Amino acid sequence: MMRSRVALAALALAACGALTTTVPAVAAEEPTQCACEAEAAKYQALRGEPYADHPSSYAPKRVYHVGDMLTTDLVHDRLNIALDDHDRIERASCG
């Protein structure tokens, strides 16, 4: 009986040890501030172009019309694309 308890305790400790793996701090798919700035620069170069011709798959992003009400939260890696009344790109920034 004592041997089975010792074996069970050893098995439990071994299982706990297997759960302590390290996880990378940032996943490769997550956007970074530099990636956002590069995407914003790309859209700044497209000023005056219809947004529909150049949709962005970058995430997170916020596409809005100039004059729209927006939240004031700052998300450093969020791409902001401002459109004019004709859905043309007016400006792009991060934040």
Describe this structure in words.
With 95 residues, this protein is of the alpha+beta class. The protein has one domain (25-94): Trypsin Inhibitor V, Chain A, CATH 3.30.10.10. Helix content is 31%, strand content 17%. Strands 1-2-3 form a three-stranded mixed sheet, with helices on one face. The radius of gyration is 24 Å and the shape is globular.
State the gist of this model:
Helices cover 31% and strands 17% of the residues. The protein is α+β, with helices and mostly antiparallel strands and 95 residues long.
Strand content: 15-25%
Looking at CATH, the homologous superfamily is: Trypsin Inhibitor V, subunit A
> In terms of per-residue confidence, which ranges show pLDDT below 50 for 5 or more consecutive residues?
4-9, 15-20
Rg: 24 Å
CATH domain class name: Alpha Beta
* Class from helix and strand fractions: alpha+beta
Number of domains: 1
* Strand elements, count: 3
What is the architecture at the second tier of CATH? 2-Layer Sandwich
Q: Terminal Cα separation, in Å?
A: 63 Å
Order of helices and strands: HHEEE
Shape: globular
Mean pLDDT: 79
Sheet having the most strands? 3 strands, mixed
**Which bin fits the share of residues in helices?**
25-40%
Across the major sheet, the strand order is 1-2-3
Query: What is the count of helical runs?
Result: 2
According to CATH, the fold-level topology is Trypsin Inhibitor V, Chain A
